């Protein structure tokens, strides 16, 4: 107990007498560890949208994401599996299962890619996140780029409104329960919300710096 108390005292003792919280300490570590991501990852408006049958995604240039995967593999000394493509999932399959009770996938895709022009939205890469799950004797790991986009959130809010106006109950779909990211790779299989992980800024491991 004394050792723990000593650690807390150290963490809360900053230079010049300025109090620094545990969260500040964690953020400072992330800030010191950075990795480059080529800015062409933002060129999604130049790519064709790829409507799916049971979810909504934004097509992302695979090249810079693949290059980032190689950096992570080198840095952490472990090979990663990927799908040979990159995307941002905007509506997940479980969310679509709820929405389809009152909106068809044709209506959702029309609204997303024609009315809202979702493929052309802007976003900001924040960090490389890491998710982990213990499964048997193995620890599964997944790496991804955490992103931020007000436009994506606005789209989900508008879709929620359309769902409610078509008879859906507003409590069944939360537009703000959303952790947008671009999967980079994983050790065994991808890890999702259903595995008990949240792929937001809470999971940041490395700061992302855009390069040219």
Quick structural gist:
The protein has two domains: 1-32, no CATH class; 33-211, no CATH class. 33% of the residues lie in helices and 25% in strands.
Provide an overview of this structure:
This protein has 212 residues and is of the alpha+beta class. It folds into two domains: 1-32, no CATH class; 33-211, no CATH class. It is built from six helices and seven strands. The strands form two sheets. A five-stranded mixed beta sheet has the order 1-7-4-5-6. A hairpin with a 2-residue loop joins strand 4 (124-135) and strand 5 (138-148). The chain is globular. The model is unreliable at 1-18 (pLDDT under 50).
Entry keywords:
212 residues, alpha+beta, 2 domains, 5-stranded mixed sheet, two-stranded antiparallel ribbon, 6 helices, 7 strands, 33% helix, 25% strand, disordered N terminus
Determine the mean pLDDT.
Answer: 90
Q: How far is the first residue's CA from the last residue's CA?
A: 50 Å
Shape: globular
Rg value: 20 Å
How many helices? 6
Order of helices and strands: HHEEHEHHEEHEE
Largest sheet: 5 strands, mixed
Helices and strands in order, then pairings?
Layout: H1 2-11, H2 22-32, E1 34-38, E2 56-60, H3 62-76, E3 86-91, H4 93-99, H5 105-115, E4 124-135, E5 138-148, H6 150-165, E6 181-186, E7 204-211
Parallel strand pairs: 1-7
Antiparallel strand pairs: 2-3, 4-5, 4-7, 5-6
């Amino acid at each position: 107990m004394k050792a723990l108390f000593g650690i807390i005292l150290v963490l809360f003792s900053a230079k010049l007498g300025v109090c620094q919280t545990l969260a500040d300490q964690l953020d400072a570590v992330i800030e010191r560890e950075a990795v480059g991501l080529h800015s062409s990852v933002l060129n999604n408006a130049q790519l064709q949208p790829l409507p799916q049958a049971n979810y909504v995604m934004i097509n992302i240039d695979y090249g810079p994401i693949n290059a980032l995967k190689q950096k992570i593999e080198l840095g952490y000394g472990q090979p990663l599996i990927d799908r040979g493509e990159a995307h941002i999932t905007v509506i997940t399959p479980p969310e679509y299962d709820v929405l389809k009770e009152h909106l068809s996938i044709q209506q959702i895709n029309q609204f997303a890619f024609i009315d809202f022009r979702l493929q052309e939205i802007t976003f900001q890469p924040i960090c490389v996140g890491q998710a982990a799950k213990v499964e048997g004797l193995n620890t599964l790991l997944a790496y991804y780029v955490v992103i931020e986009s007000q436009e994506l959130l606005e789209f989900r809010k508008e879709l929620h409104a359309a769902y409610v106006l078509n008879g859906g109950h507003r409590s069944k779909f939360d537009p703000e329960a959303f952790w947008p990211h671009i999967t980079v790779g994983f050790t065994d299989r991808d890890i999702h919300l259903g595995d008990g992980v949240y792929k937001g800024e809470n999971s940041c491991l490395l700061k992302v710096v855009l390069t040219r």
